[in-house]
Amino acid sequence: MSVVLETTKGDLTVDLFIKERPKTCLNFLKLCKMKRYNFNRFHHVERNFLCQTGDPTGTGRGGESIFGLLYGQQAKYYEAEQLPVLKHTKPGLLSMVNVGDNMLGSQFFITLGDNLDFLDKEHCVFGEVVEGHDALLNINEAICDENHVPYQDIRITHTVILEDPYPDPPGLEIPVHSPEPTKEMLDSGRIAADEDINDMEGKTAEEIEELIAEKEAKARATILEMVGDLPSVDAAPPENVLFVCKLNPVTTDDDLMIIFSRFGKIVNCEIIRDRQTMNSLQYAFIEFDNPKSCEDAYFKMDNVLIDDRRIHVDFSQSVSRLQWKGKGRGVEFVGGKAFDPNKEDYKVKGQFEREQSKRISSDQHSKRYAPHQRQRDFQQRDKYQGGREHREDRDGRDHREHREDRDGRDRREHREERDGRDRGKHREDRDGRDREDRREHREDRDRRDHRDHRTNRSDFDNRGRRGERDNREERRNHDRDHRERRRSPDRSQKQEDVSAQKRIRRNSSPKKSHRARSK
Question: According to the UniProt entry, which residue ranges have a biased composition of type Basic residues (predicted)?
Fold first, then answer.
């Protein structure tokens, strides 16, 4: 069997345990049917614990069961059902409030946390929320005062019974319309449920900026917790650690410890270095034994000149020394704990000594990583003397290094310029040689072509002259043969015979033609 509770934070759909708690479910269903829960406010809300309602007066001391409405004040409460045992094991369980002596009325609460076992033997579970967990989360996030009363009213506006398996008791008069709330019921002295809340109203511009910055910081912290970079949203950096940046690379841990030790006892001073080259990354963390010394150093040392560098000092925002103990168990400081002015044991007993034994002193650090660092003519100076000599030595080293770097750059630039000129000359010579080779190649080719052409032409001329000579020789031979034939007697007789035949044929041919014409 289900009931819908419409609230100002959203709708809650509730399933009732009819078989396990029949009497309690009857009481709850008939009260919903009589509209007795309309405009009841959640007068008690504890985050991750429970939210309580069902009292028409809104004080937590009123309310009566359906049997009190039917049979009078002697039946205002009824005895709770204890078997079977239902436990408060998860959020969203509905349980009737025990008003004393295991008696129940109209008030009930909804659990907002897990494993509330200490409520099992005192209060009676009769249902659970199956839909509307977003509304439960909104109720859980409500802002309350020290008595767990919300500053803005959260009310049940209406109840809808989806199915009622119980018949109505005799004498129960069901209202046709929802009753109007009384003035005393609405006048709770709190912000109305439908009233808009403006967090910025009545605040100055600085307060508004601070509020916005706080919300943005909380949102960023939530994101860092989700990605695993922050152990907890509420994790805050230690208040006794100072962050120093823009340091000179030649500044050492001992230098910072001597300079900052006038503000108080320094627990740890460490310049962060590169893991491979062990060169300074130009920022450091200085840990004091109390926040007061850290605050004094912050106000006095910001923008101070150290080793010809203007340093910047701020409170550390690093939480790398916070160790997460697990969900719901908080965090602790690795090697220490938060400062407590009422206790003298600022550090965990024995923990600081173990951490100090793991750390490397400045002397041991210089000996161990000497091969990885540039050799310097450095001597440990006294705390109060030798500052000028140290600065002069350091300035001399810096001047020499600067001069060497400048000379090295000049030599490198001169060498590059010379190489460039040499490359230019070599390129020009090579191009000149290539042009000369191409010119000679063209001239050789032209001479070869001219010689071949002249040779071919002389051959042609020789062949022509030889042909003409052969022709003349052939004509002379023919003429000689012709003359010889004409001189021979046989040839002359034959010619005479031929001549005679021609004359006879010439004389006889006209006559034949004349006879033919006469015919």
Answer: 502-519
